[in-house]
């Protein structure tokens, strides 16, 4: 019996899958997820609709495939450096992931009400991974006595989430596809605000 892992591996190595996903992503960006049909995806590629169904059962399956390819589902390897440097790395990861896949993120965030539960579940899982790393990074700094917090750990993580989300949402809702400053600088500004508002570096 073919395992789910084997199926995913076969998909990743099959060029029609990549072509169908790319065409769907273009259409999602141009006319929105709700208005995109499997027939439109087939038409964009100049193939029959049944050929698209040979690889994907629905446009939701295509969207999930795109998420799995473009949004990480594993935590980042062990981070090095000071608290600021580690948090800047995590913030920069989130910001760059969005900028590199801005059209996909716009679909996910602006058309969330019409999406199924699975795409949302994938996003929540990714966010949980990132926030877990942020929490552990701050905990390590407190335990090492290199950071003295002025509020609870939950409040610090909430503040981090709010600052990063504000920056990401600003790009999603704008007409631009890039941040106004280099990503490293944007991440540094976020972490500077976070540290100044929540604690003291020792």
UniProtKB/TrEMBL annotation:
Keyword DNA-binding: yes
Domain spans labelled HTH tetR-type: 14-74
Domain of life, source organism: Bacteria
DNA-binding region (UniProt annotation): 37-56
Keywords: DNA-binding, Transcription, Transcription regulation
PANTHER family according to UniProt: HTH-TYPE TRANSCRIPTIONAL REGULATOR BETI, HTH-TYPE TRANSCRIPTIONAL REGULATOR RUTR
Matching InterPro entries: DNA-bd_HTH_TetR-type_CS, Homeodomain-like_sf, HTH-type_TetR-like_transc_reg, HTH_TetR, Tet_transcr_reg_TetR-rel_C_sf
Record has Transcription regulation as a keyword: yes
PROSITE patterns: HTH_TETR_1, HTH_TETR_2
GO molecular function, one term: transcription cis-regulatory region binding
Family annotation (Pfam families): TetR_N
Name of this protein: HTH tetR-type domain-containing protein
